[in-house]
Amino acid sequence: MVMTDSQKCWLNGQIIPLPEAKVSIMTHSLQYGSGIFEGIRAYETSEGPAIFRLEEHVNRFMKTARIYMMDIGYTNEQIRDAIIETVRENNLKSAYIRPFAFYDDSKVGVSTYNKKISVFIGAFEFGKYFSNADAGLKCKISSLRRFDSSSLPTQAKGSGNYLNSVLAMKEARRSGFDEAILLDRNGMVAEGPGENIFLVRDGKLITPGEDSSILLGITRMSLLELARDMGIEVVERFVHREEIYVADELFFCGTAAEITPILNVDGVDIANGKVGPITRKIRDEFFNIVQGKEPKYSKWLTKAMAEIDG
Fold this sequence. Notes:
Number of helices: 8
Structural class: alpha+beta
Oligomer: single chain
Largest sheet: 9 strands, mixed
CATH class of the largest domain: Alpha Beta
Helix content: 25-40%
Distance between the termini: 30 Å
Number of strands: 17
CATH superfamily of the largest domain: D-amino Acid Aminotransferase, subunit A, domain 2
Shape: globular
Number of domains: 2
CATH architecture of the largest domain: Alpha-Beta Barrel
Strand content: 25-35%
Order of helices and strands: EEHEEEHHEEEHEEEEHEHEEEHEH
């Protein structure tokens, strides 16, 4: 991830130089974690940058705003157009895109009543989320549990929600692992700190369902459809912790993580420590799609330059 002073961002309806996007250190969302955000990728294609599942990401961003009762003052179409404009203004071939809505108010107090809301969109170069993604990850089942909707809305991307993820990741890294896997409050597998999780058993693709307190990931949703199209049986259900250790294959997915194999959990090798054939097949097809090489899935891509020129 590289952000420089020469970059531009979108803030409250205007494209401005990134250094001019300033807020008070006392801003409510910095003090209390009350912002909301999205993570979106644009990939390099032969026709310029293509934003993956833009409509779905914008829809989730707006749904998160409603869940957190934030009137951000913009429509889906305005946010969508602003994202495309930000990618164009930064002349990016590929990018990670971060829409962020926050309470831009420095009055002390938890209440958000009558507080100003600002909306920011940044776009910047972004490579692999995990430096060893191709080699596969070593993961630790976290001692922390993924929260459920009785505490915080699991289906919303609220900034404060991710403190749970930060602690789980710190625990994993301090124990010598690359990433954490969180269980839900019932002890069933939920997800990673910023990723959904899939396992393969007997040729079936299995993933925790909506009742496992997961974020309904856009990449996850895409892989469910893709796997079915590839003739792979897909099962969404509760996943017991011990199933992880005996899985034939295991991988994370997400906007940042893309598709990242997991080859060891709690010191137990998965698939003899090698990337499995189904994981590899799905990953290869996914990258063909995001690079614009599969016409069948062209509906998943918004070609930024074509949108602007048109």
